[in-house]
Amino acid sequence: MVAAQPAAAADPAGYQNVRINEVTSSNSDTVELYNTGSMAVSISGWKMSDDSFSPQTFSPSSSTIPAGGFVTFNSPKGLGDSDKLVIYTASGVVVDRVEWATNGAKPAMARCGGDGTGGWVTTTAASTFGASNASGCPSSIPAASRVRINEVTSDGTDTVELYNDGTSAVSIGSWKYVDNDTTHSPVSISSTSPSATSIPAGGYVTFSSTLGLGDNDSVFLLDSNGNTVDSVTWATDGAKPSDERCANGTGWFQTSTTATLGSANSCSGSGGGGGTGGGGGQLLGGGGSLTSGCTPEAPSGTGPTPAGTLAWPGGLDVTIADNVCAFTTSTGPEGRDLSGLAFDPANPSVLWAAKNKNWLYKLVKSNGKWIPDASWSATGKQIRFAGGTGQPDSEGLTVGANGHIYVTSERDNTNNSVPKDTIMEFDPAATGSTLTPIQQWDMTSQFPQLNTGSKDDANLGFEGVGYVPDSWLTANGWVDPLTGAAYNPANYPLHGSGLFFAGLEWDGTLHVYGLNSDGTFTTFGTIATGKVSVMDVTFDAGTQRIIATCDNTCGETHTFMKVNAGRAIVPDVTYTNPAVMPTDNLEGFAIAPTSTCVNGFREAVWSDDGIYGFGSGSSSYGHAIYSGTFPC
To answer: C-alpha angle with apex 418: 417 to 422, nearest 5 degrees?
Structure first.
């Protein structure tokens, strides 16, 4: 083996963002590289080695890896049952490395849980070279592969932080680590941190590297069998003060402004360690004159940001992504009150939106803006309660497993001092300009505190709703509060294939329901979000989290909920909005599926219930939808 040499000027910008993503030692000995960064990276002149031969050139399918793209090649030397693969730049700097034990790469060894960012898993399905690993990954990622390198510093202390993103403790007493010097042998974690024998679910372990970590360096983590678990590489100053994952435990790396070893990552950096970023961000787009009758409403109810809230982990730039006064209707000519948002998981180019005064929109992208899909309705469709009556105060919506749209309502706007907390099911394929529910479930009696005769109290009911698949609840061992045992969907034969989590504005709680096909419902209790209010609820398959969103009432924040070691659903981490956004009644929030990922990011969208923006004369005045990015 030859030692890696110091980085030369010829090393391409962003080389540290290139990751080995998949490898097989079955016949073809194929290797896949993935670029997690925001710019294309030239791999011309790069080399590889295994555990028995010196670095040598290989012939990739392309000499350049585009941002968010793949390149494959066949190893010039055979890869064995128990082997190691190291990738070098043309100057000899180690880019990435993966090791596997006997049969670990048969049929393939692949990153699962996110291309370029996931943990290494031996797949049981066919390999997916040149495409996302998702379809080849097992449905349940092994516990050891849920342990991630979460933060690393080369700023004097040379400390590494591990995070367990799983739901059970993992023994790490015999695990090892190594840096990018190929003359170094892996070192036992316990040799530097004797107490580091186990990492609890949702917990952290830190240890100091005895190998020394410098510029243009790496950390590779190996389990007790010698299989690579995770890795990170950074360029000059990329780990000063630290290089950290954003989002915590799941995203790609960026250089932080403050090290947070032993706790959730700050995600307050500007990039450069492994991901992308920039300065303070820019608010782009917008403008235009208000149409007749369009009247933005100033925000109300501003409160403090909860303690421990982290900076937005995605891109700092945000684009205003709708036309001015785009959502005026016969029941809302002032154009305000666009509230709930949800991407269609079956067609992520579609964004569903609910307007409080009983309208539903199917939105599609056109020239960077979300506009009504004219083939569905260029002006939106009005919704009614069961029987075709009333005007639902439609606040939140979600897409069920059957492709139907489920909408929450706090009250009937024709009698707005009386609560009417309901969930309604609509078939988006139904014809006509007015939609009536296929089914409707009324939970009003559960919230007597809202029935005071005050329209303000009646307006503090169901603000958001998210469909959560049974598969997530069972995979994480969620305890059914009705039985005290692990949730078993078979106990509720009429509920479909998931539960609905409705957010209550009154106190920030989530209320869990099974919506039965016979019109009845099962109540599974209440979950605290740690917020004083909830304005939208969504389940994000990418982060495997339920997200409870609050507007300026809680400092414009999003709390990601997980199943903890006690099998209860609890807050995990809370993020604020990008700093360039206004502090308004931003009541809608959604993150696009990971299938849409480009350059390591996917779209996040917000809706302004008051279309106020930064006020009169600003580019955001009269606009409802903001578009940013969130890590894959």
So the answer is: 130
Residue with tokens 């409705």: 502
- CA-based Rg of the chain, rounded to a whole angstrom? 25
Q: Which helix (H) or strand (E) holds 503?
A: strand 498-504
DSSP 342: E
Mapped onto helix, strand or coil, the DSSP state of residue 338 is strand
Residue owning tokens 């180690």: 94
CB of 625 within 8 A of CB of 610? no
Would the CA dihedral through 307, 311, 313, 318 be positive or negative?
positive
Cβ atoms within 10 Å, residue 56 = 12
User: Residue 290: CB partners within 8 Å, gap ≥ 6?
Assistant: 296, 324, 325, 621, 622
Contact predicate 321/368, CB 8 Å: yes
Helix (H) or strand (E) segment spanning residue 96: strand 94-100
* Contact in structure between 143 and 166 (CB atoms under 8 Å): yes
Q: Is 413 left (phi over 0), alpha (psi -120 to 50) or beta?
A: alpha
- The tens digit of pLDDT for each residue in 285-319 reads 999 999 999 999 999 999 999 988 999 999 888 99
* pTM of this structure: 0.67
Asked if 513 and 466 touch (Cβ cutoff 8 Å), the reply is: no
Residue pair 168/143 in contact by the 8 Å Cβ criterion: yes
What is the pLDDT confidence band of residue 38, given thresholds at 50, 70 and 90? low
| d(C-alpha 306, C-alpha 288), whole Å | 35
